[in-house]
Amino acid sequence: MNDNKDVSGPESWPAPPDVLPPPKRELIWRIRGMVRTIRPHQWIKNVFVLAPVVFAKSIFDVQLLSTAAAAFSVFCLLAGTVYTMNDLADLDADRVHPVKRYRPIASGRVPVPWAKALIAVLTVVSFGGALVLSPWFFLVALLYFLNNVFYTVRLKHLAYVDVGSIALGFVLRVLGGGFATRIEVSWYLLLCTALLALFLGFGKRRHELTTAQARAGKQRVALESYTQRGLDWALGITAILTLGTYLVYTLDPETLAFFRVKNLWPTTAFGVLGVLRFLHIVRNRPRAESPTQEMVSDGPMVAIALAWAFGIMWLVYHLRPA
Questions:
Q1: What 3-state DSSP class applies to 318?
Q2: Which of 92, 111, 204, 316 is least buried, going by the fewest C-beta atoms within 10 A?
Q3: H helices within the chain, ranges in order?
Q4: Cβ pair 267, 315 in contact under 8 A
Q5: Closest Cα partner for 71 from 197, 185, 152?
């Protein structure tokens, strides 16, 4: 089967799979649609909130870990709010997308008033939880939310600026984890996070530009200002900078002294493999909704991530608390 086959217009697409169930089951069906709207499978992105605890060698500190888990939960709720807002804002564009048209709001499974109520509830609960954890954490959560509001309203229409806004969201996740647990966050961690997020964001735009073809402007306004050549350069530059920054971090004498290891740099190999695998997904999975979503279920990518995590645990923690 040729995955690069052009997809014809909306009029030739099959009907959405969600069919209105009998009245007795309709409420449960719609509630499940609301759960899908907040994207539980995307919550893995909020693992960045836990990064300060991991790299502070405090992963076995139960109190810190529980606080970090609470911060993680707050960002999951905030992310769900943002996803719902974006789906409402992108309603017309999603309805002409071959995959996104099946999203609960675009398909009609979740009515618009229900989606607005969901946003209100998630916003109140998430900000209430953030304030309980820490005033500084609350401030970071607020900045994260405002950044996403600006993204939805304006920034997502500006090429390259839109990816920068997404990268800022990942940096704020790391800062939030640091403030919640009162752990000082290394500038290496912030820089690596920003560069990695830019790399993944450009990969997602490269994938969208390839699959959208003539419908690019209808699916995402910013795609009209992107070019494949420009995105290839952006991917190459951010990949090199990300790997280079991580390599310098693993060779820094202060890093080695803190972790009490001599050879941390070999873990860079997992980063190289991860970058290459992601580029493969971007170029060879045109039917996927998103390469960042696809990588979570991609066997080789998951294996690379687990191997890197195991290597870090072995070298930094020696598989036991410091």
A1: coil
A2: 92
A3: 23-37, 51-55, 62-89, 91-94, 104-107, 112-133, 135-153, 161-181, 187-212, 216-219, 228-251, 253-259, 268-284, 291-297, 299-312
A4: yes
A5: 185
Strands (E), 12-98: none
* Side chain identity, residue 223: L
Q: Which two tokens stand for residue 300?
A: 């080789």
Helix-, strand-, coil-residue percentages of the chain, each rounded to 5: 80, 0, 20
230-to-88, 194, 198, 204, 234 alpha-carbon distances in Å: 30, 19, 14, 13, 6
Neighbours of 62 (CB within 10 A): 8
Euclidean distance between CA atoms 149 and 88, whole angstroms: 12
Eight-class DSSP state of 16: P
- Cα-Cα end-to-end distance for the chain: 52
Counted residue by residue, the chain has a size of: 322
Half-sphere exposure of 192 (CA within 13 A, CB side): 20
Contact call for residues 182 and 136 (beta carbons, < 8 A): no
Q: What is the pLDDT of residues 151-163, one digit of tens each?
A: 888 888 888 999 9
Q: What is the mean pLDDT of residues 108-137?
A: 90
35, 39, 79 from 74: Cα distances, Å: 16, 14, 9
Cβ atoms 285, 294 nearer than 8 A = yes
C-alpha span between 296 and 121 (Å, rounded): 28
pLDDT digits (tens, 9 = 90+) for 241-267: 999 999 999 999 988 888 888 888 999
Sequence-distant (≥ 6) Cβ neighbours of residue 174 within 8 angstroms: 48, 49, 51, 52, 185, 189, 190, 193
In whole angstroms, what is the distance from residue 183 CA to residue 177 CA?
A: 8
